[in-house]
């Protein structure tokens, strides 16, 4: 008996990396899986239907059940079609795992409107679109008397919640939006028996992270690899299981560590019974403890940056931004 026996699951971005590992584990745990992936490049261009098909072949070769879907989550009707694929092939849908994402890494001054929109369309709008179509089906089933547990597992990132990386304005914004959307969706969809949670992988070795310092090193031989994309799969499976009690939670996953995130929290404050003047604020606010984003990121990358973290971080940022087009031709 697997932890997901009988569960019908749609996983987006399931052709490679974290999504592929989730699809394989879910199937091994007894789920029937819709493997969605249009097979695009990291930046969202191109397409290869064989990417999803190969994962389906892996699952079926191991005795599991799966079907491929190659629609884009950024396509409103495509999101509807992938939900319908589950209903047509497996007669129901219990879980959606929103994993699809793309990147367009460049400095804010060189990021075009199209670049920003395309990333947010896949990461944020795509997570919403697939969830929306699934939720409408679940609402109808609930109203018809079907009380089966349903679940959404969204995917955010450390770049967006804990350590946003330079050149990832659109990626960080999309991922932070997914985490916020998770909370709202959990509050709204609970009335229909739907739980909504989010996992946030950090420092996982995928196509998207190979440029991060330390990520391209060879994995350790014959022992646990904390950077392997499979580290997120058991957490996603737990959140997808019918007996999981959690909803409205954002869990960070880094190697073998799983932590509960508490989102933006109120820190130190100053108070006045009346309207502040600018001069008063200038005097008082400087007394408040604040976090330095450079120091926070240097600590997060400490394994790769060593003891001179901040200086090396600034060098890394400068090197990334110096690669951008100085003429500004990407800024149209």
Notes on the structure:
41% of the residues lie in helices and 13% in strands. With 332 residues, it is of the alpha/beta class. It has 2 domains: 8-260, Rossmann fold (3-Layer(aba) Sandwich), CATH 3.40.50.720; 278-331, no CATH class. An 8-stranded mixed β-sheet has the order 3-2-1-4-5-6-7-8, with helices on both faces. The longest helix is centred in the middle third of the chain and has 31 residues, at 113-143. The protein starts with 7 loop residues before the first strand and ends in a 10-residue tail after the last helix. The relative contact order is 0.12. Mean pLDDT is 88; it is low at 326-332.
Outline of this structure?
The protein has about 325 residues and is α/β, with parallel strands linked by helices. It is built from eleven helices and eight strands. It folds into two domains: about 10-260, Rossmann fold, CATH 3.40.50.720; about 280-330, no CATH class.
Q: What's the domain count?
A: 2
Provide the CATH architecture of the largest domain: 3-Layer(aba) Sandwich
* Strand order in the sheet with the most strands: 3-2-1-4-5-6-7-8
SSE string, helices as H and strands as E: EHEHEHEHEHHEHEEHHHH
Structural class: alpha/beta
User: What is the radius of gyration?
Assistant: 21 Å
**CATH topology type of the largest domain:** Rossmann fold
Shape: globular
Q: What percent of the residues sit in helical stretches (DSSP H or I)?
A: 40-55%
Reported for the largest beta sheet, the result is: 8 strands, mixed
**Helical stretch tally:** 11
Stretches where pLDDT is under 50 for at least 5 consecutive residues are 326-332
């Amino acid at each position: 008996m697997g932890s997901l026996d009988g569960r019908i699951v749609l996983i987006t971005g399931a052709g490679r990396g974290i999504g592929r590992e989730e699809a394989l584990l879910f199937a091994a745990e007894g789920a029937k899986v819709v493997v969605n992936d249009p097979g695009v490049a990291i930046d969202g261009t191109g397409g290869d239907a064989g990417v999803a098909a190969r994962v389906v072949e892996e699952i079926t070769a191991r005795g599991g059940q799966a079907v491929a879907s190659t629609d884009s989550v950024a396509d409103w009707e495509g999101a509807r079609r992938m939900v319908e694929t589950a209903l047509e092939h497996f007669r129901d849908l219990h879980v959606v795992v929103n994993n699809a994402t793309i990147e367009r890494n460049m400095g804010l001054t060189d990021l075009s409107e199209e670049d920003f929109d395309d990333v947010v369309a896949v990461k944020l709008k795509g997570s919403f679109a697939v969830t929306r179509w699934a939720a409408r089906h679940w609402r109808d089933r609930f109203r018809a008397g079907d009380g089966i547990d349903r679940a959404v597992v969204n995917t955010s990132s450390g770049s967006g919640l804990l350590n946003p990386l330079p050149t990832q304005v659109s990626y960080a914004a999309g991922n932070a939006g997914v985490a916020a959307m998770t909370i709202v969706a959990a509050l709204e969809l609970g009335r229909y028996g739907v739980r909504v949670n989010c996992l946030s992988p950090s420092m996982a070795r995928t196509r998207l992270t190979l440029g991060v310092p330390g990520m391209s090193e060879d994995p350790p031989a014959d022992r646990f690899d904390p950077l392997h994309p499979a580290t997120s799969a058991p957490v996603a499976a737990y959140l997808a299981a019918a007996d999981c009690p959690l909803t409205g939670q954002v869990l960070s996953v880094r190697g073998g560590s799983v932590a509960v995130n508490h989102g933006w929290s109120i820190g130190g404050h100053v108070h006045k019974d009346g309207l502040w003047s600018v001069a008063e604020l200038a005097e008082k606010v400087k007394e408040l403890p604040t976090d330095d984003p450079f120091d926070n990121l240097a600590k997060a990358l400490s394994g790769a940056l060593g003891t001179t973290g901040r200086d090396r971080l600034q060098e890394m940022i400068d090197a990334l931004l110096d690669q951008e087009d100085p003429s500004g031709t990407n800024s149209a």
